[in-house]
Backbone:
């Protein structure tokens, strides 16, 4: 009997894995935050409030959180490739359908379902890579997936803004849905089958015990709350900055606003810098410093000078990704057993923070002003910083 070998760096199989895992990241995050830059147009189209329109973003992230929680228990029961293909194709079809829906509540409901099915990719992608790829190049394969996530999120926002400005928001949604469908079909055609995956039954009682253990650990709970507060603040800024830039004193058109989302490249730098300095610097201090820099960045968003706002957004974005990278690492390192349970709870808080704060702050902005909105986010970030003191500081 011939023992199969894992994909090595120069193999054709590894090249296909790298390409397809990158394409899956592009598709998932282009669709997940598709509506973020379109919120002003959607609010105007449906004659609704800023907060109500933001539910189009929050619905997808709520669905993502629920899906990740579901797949914590069920992911190992399904074929890795079949689950990812189903997720990519079905989410693309739902995005295409969204372009024709005439009801905002129905559009929001489709967003929840789309987020749920998209989570099928995120729940097994890293597991597939660690199972199928040689250990020496696992990090390279994972970096391709994460690059796809970042570039997909950034390019989806930019293209959606430009297309919507020229052709309307419905056509922007339709085009990105079609592009995602093509990416899904390419994935289906070229993604290699699993050689090392064996379907397993989940021990539900063990999973629940592990989750309860982490939720009652004050160190872990603090990290989870930090993830929720920081992600909620980050998504809030990107949800509503478009509204701010369209109005006086900036009055920017859709073309220039689109390129604001290039700030996401600073997120890549934030992750890289954090990974490098964590070898020499205490992780808790990096987390604290990153949160403080987030506070500095968000203060610049109060300015009425566009260059200061851009600088502040870059600093805020870099610092958020640095803090998120560090908090997720600290979560994984703390969990000696049940790492998948520990990290799934982290992502649950992360996406629920995105959903709840991401929409809740929209109602605050609608009822008050940009200045009050920013002060509320500053307060949220200060709470996150306070959670780094005491238990986390001493361990």
Residues:
């Amino acid at each position: 009997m011939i023992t199969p070998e894992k994909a090595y760096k120069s193999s054709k199989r590894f090249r296909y894995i790298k390409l397809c895992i990158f394409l899956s990241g592009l598709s998932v995050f282009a669709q997940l935050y598709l509506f973020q830059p379109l919120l002003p147009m959607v609010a105007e189209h449906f004659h609704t409030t800023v907060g109500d329109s933001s539910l189009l973003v929050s619905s997808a992230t709520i669905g993502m959180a629920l899906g990740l929680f579901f797949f914590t228990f069920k992911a190992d029961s399904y074929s890795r490739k079949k689950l990812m293909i189903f997720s990519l194709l079905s989410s693309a079809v739902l995005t295409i359908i969204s372009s024709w829906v005439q009801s905002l509540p129905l559009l929001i409901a489709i967003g929840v379902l789309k987020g749920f099915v998209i989570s099928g990719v995120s729940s097994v992608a890293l597991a597939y890579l660690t199972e199928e790829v040689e250990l020496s190049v696992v990090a390279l394969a994972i970096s391709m997936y994460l690059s796809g996530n970042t570039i997909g999120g950034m390019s989806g926002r930019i293209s959606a803004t430009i297309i919507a400005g020229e052709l309307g928001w419905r056509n922007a949604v339709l085009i990105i849905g079609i592009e995602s469908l093509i990416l899904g079909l390419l994935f289906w055609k070229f993604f290699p089958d699993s050689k090392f995956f064996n379907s397993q039954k989940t021990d539900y009682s063990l999973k629940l015990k592990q989750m309860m253990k982490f939720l009652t650990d004050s160190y872990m709970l603090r990290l989870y709350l930090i993830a929720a507060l920081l992600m909620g603040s980050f998504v809030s800024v990107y949800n509503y900055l478009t509204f701010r830039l369209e109005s006086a004193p900036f009055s920017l058109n859709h073309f220039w606003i689109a390129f604001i989302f290039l700030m996401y490249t600073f997120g890549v730098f934030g992750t890289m810098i954090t990974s490098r300095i964590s070898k020499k610097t205490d992780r808790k201090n990096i987390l604290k410093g990153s949160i403080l820099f987030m506070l500095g960045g968000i203060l610049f968003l109060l300015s009425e000078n566009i260059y200061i706002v851009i600088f502040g957004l870059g600093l805020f974005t870099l610092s958020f990704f640095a803090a998120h990278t560090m908090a997720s690492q600290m979560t994984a390192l703390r969990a000696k057993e049940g790492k998948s349970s520990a990290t799934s709870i982290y992502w649950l808080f992360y996406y629920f923070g995105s959903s709840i704060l991401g929409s809740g702050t929209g109602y605050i902005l609608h009822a008050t002003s940009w200045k009050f909105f920013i002060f509320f986010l500053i307060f949220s970030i200060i709470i996150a910083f306070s959670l780094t003191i005491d238990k986390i500081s001493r361990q």
Summary: Residues 135-167 form the longest helix (33 residues). The mean pLDDT is 91. The chain is about 80% helix and 0% strand.
